Amino acid sequence: MKNPAPAIFPPDGIGEGAPANQAVLDWVHEIAILTEPENIFWCDGSDRENEFLVSESLKQNVLIELNQKRVPRSYLHRSNPNDVARVEQFTFVCTPTKEEAGPTNNWSEPAETYKKLRGLLQGAMRGRTLFVIPYIMGPPDSPLAKVGFEITDSKYVVLNMRIMTRMGEVAVKRLGNDPEAEWNRGVHSLLDINPERRFICHFPQDNAIISVGSGYGGNVLLSKKCLALRIGSYLARKQGWLAEHMLILGVESPEGKKHYVAAAFPSACGKTNFAMLIPPEHFKGWKITTVGDDIAWMQVRDGRLYAVNPENGYFGVVPGTSHQSNPNAMRSIAHDTIYTNVALTDDGDAWWEGKNGDPPEHAIDWRGNDWSPDSKEKAAHPNSRFTTPMRNNPALDRDVENGGGVPISAIIFGGRRSDTVPLVYESFDWARGVYLGATMASETTAAATGKVGQIRRDPMAMLPFCGYNIGEYFQHWLDIGKRLTDPPRIFSANWFRKDADGKFLWPGFGENMRVLKWILDRCEGSGGALKSPVGWLPSPHDLDLSGLDLDHKCVAELLCIDHEEWQNEIAAHKTFFDSLGGVVPQQLLDQRKELAARFKE
Ligand code: OXD
Ligand code: MN
User: Fold this and answer.
1) Within a 10 A sphere around the Cβ of 572, how many other Cβ atoms?
2) Which residues are CB-contacts of 511 (< 8 A; sequence separation ≥ 6)?
3) Residue 294 Cβ < 6 Å to ligand 1
4) Distance from C-alpha of 397 to C-alpha of 415, rounded to nearest angstrom
5) pLDDT confidence bin for 64, thresholds 50/70/90
6) In terms of Cα–Cα distance, which of 222, 198, 218, 196 is closest to 209?
7) How far apart are the CA of 522 and the centre of ligand 1, in A?
8) 3 state DSSP class of 428
């Protein structure tokens, strides 16, 4: 590359955060030769740098300033309408053999894929700035923390990564000068935002990611789904820990007894709401605190499972967020937030379906068109998002920076199921909990492109995120269990069961505290339960439902295990296992038979 002339003329001292590590310098040089940018900008994550990039983004319409009195230091971004969600069909795991990627991933041969991507990246940053983002996932003093570098030609990505990760100096320091140190190489280019040239490719053996053709969320914030989950799960298996699509919350009783719970729900199924839950009046004195809302990295120590949240911010679904559904999220996103694909009101505020108050008489919708309540289109895209720093959360857990992690007492697996799956039950033991997680299913949501509302098996909520063979992933879970002398109890939860008229039976949101309380009672050995074929099921009086306007019939329906529905469910487990082509551990196949037999007892 010729001596690059700065295209955006950063003021002195900005864009000079280059690390001393030669391996990083060599890699950046190689990508710059390939992509031919005008300028290389080494991000340091400082406030000054951020202000500079925000002001450039405003000038170039990458960001739109919101009303600074209402939402200080907050901005709106509109993505290309062809680019509004994760693209699972264009997401690849590139391992030497197809078997390593397994039956649930799109596989692509590494050498050919590198070649194809290099072709697409050739000259792709001409006239653009190449940003290098150093970041660290996990509390910097955590043994699980991972350093990554993301190269991108998108300012929006830089601004989001600064919120979502610990970015800059801290990562450079942790990496140090060792050219052999482990770090993730992420390359992202917008190209021309064309779905035909959109590929999100992972090379687990090389600890590398290349993402092209998208500018949206999980496709491009490479720290999140790509590193923390897909590459993370691969590293976790190799190194003996777990990288999971789970929120982590703390729950403290009025007497000061505290437990931590991790919960895996698929995308857009309420992880953020659950992680920020405010207990209803009836549970006065109980406190919920958030460790994380999307990803848990967990390790075994002294026979227990300890979790850290690798992220530094929340990339949450906006529609439906209100002072009723999630007051802590509303407070979090009241300042220092990037909104993507929400509507813009005439007075410069962000608006979305489900926000408190009446809809505005007029707004500009997420595509930039005039909108009124009579419009047929939604004002905000169903997968519109907020990016907000976790320090904005009034309920942030005090141990969120504790590198050793928090001890997990319970794991919850849950999906959107309008029938079959009861409100809550507990698996008989770890191995049967692994079966429960492995066979969970949920209705698809707008978080990924494709049909919404289709039931699909989504093991441990990791179907789109497990970066290696799912059969080995199941075995890894079983093996972790053998190392736990005090394992978390494993539960199933379903907030989404409906009655015959299609109405939700359970109020959800803050009232989920009632389910959580039963879970804690079980962990402490005090909660009552009946033995059912699927596991330990609360009877109506085992749940604290006082003050809740729910009739007996409704409670009975919520807790019902309908044998006919479960015959279909167990048959669907078989279909799913069969579809995986012989990779499922024998222990789980046996469990399916045992489950079926328990229904006949
Ligand atoms: C997310 C997702 O953005 O799961 O967290 O899609
Ligand atoms: Mn997620």
Assistant:
1) 15
2) 280, 548
3) yes
4) 25
5) very high
6) 222
7) 30
8) coil
The per-residue pLDDT of the chain, averaged, comes to: 96
Query: Residue 331 CA to chain centroid, in angstroms?
Result: 20
Q: SS3 sequence, 227-267? A: HHHHHHHHHHHHHCCEEECCEEEEEECCCCCEEEEEEECCC
End-to-end CA distance of the chain: 73
Q: What number is the average pLDDT over the span 258-266?
A: 97
Phi (first) and psi of residue 481, to 5 degrees: -55, -35
How many CB atoms are located within 10 Å of the residue 396 CB?
A: 19
Distance (Å, whole) CA 446 – CA 268: 7
pLDDT in tens, 283-298: 999 999 999 999 999 9
| Ligand 1 pocket residue status of 314, Cβ below 6 Å | no
Query: Can you state the percent helix, strand and coil of the chain, rounding each to 5?
Result: 30, 25, 45
Residue 86 Cβ < 6 Å to ligand 1: yes
Q: pTM of the predicted model, to two decimals?
A: 0.97
Q: Which of 404, 386, 374 is nearest to 342 (CA)?
A: 386
Other C-beta atoms within 10 Å of 587: how many?
14
Q: Residue 286 — left, alpha, or beta (φ > 0 → left; ψ -120 to 50 → alpha)?
A: beta
The DSSP output letter for 225 is I
Q: How many CB atoms lie within 10 A of CB 601?
A: 5
- Residue 442 β-bridge partners: 456
Q: Classify 142 as helix, strand or coil.
A: coil
Strands of the sheet containing 363-364, edge to edge, are 350-351, 343-345, 363-364, 370-371
Ligand 1 neighbourhood includes 447 CB (under 6 angstroms): yes
* Share of residues in the chain with pLDDT > 70 (%): 99
Q: How far apart are CA 203 and CA 208, in angstroms?
A: 5
Torsion angles phi and psi, residue 212, rounded to 5: -135, 150
Question: Per-residue pLDDT tens for 385-421?
Answer: 999 999 999 999 999 999 999 999 999 999 999 999 9
Among 520, 541, 546, CA closest to 529: 541
The CB-based long-range contact list for 62-67 (8 Å cut-off, 24+ gap) reads 62/155, 62/156, 63/156, 63/159, 63/338, 64/344, 65/348, 66/339, 66/344, 66/348, 66/349, 66/350, 67/347, 67/348, 67/349
269 is catalytic: yes
Q: Which of 214, 293, 294 to mutate to test the pocket of ligand 1 (most atoms within 8 A of CB)?
A: 294
Q: And the tokens for 401?
A: 């920076």
Sheet holding 385-389, edge to edge: 64-65, 75-77, 338-340, 385-389, 313-317
C-alpha R_g of the chain: 24
> Measured between alpha carbons, how far is 560 from 569 in angstroms, rounded to an integer?
14
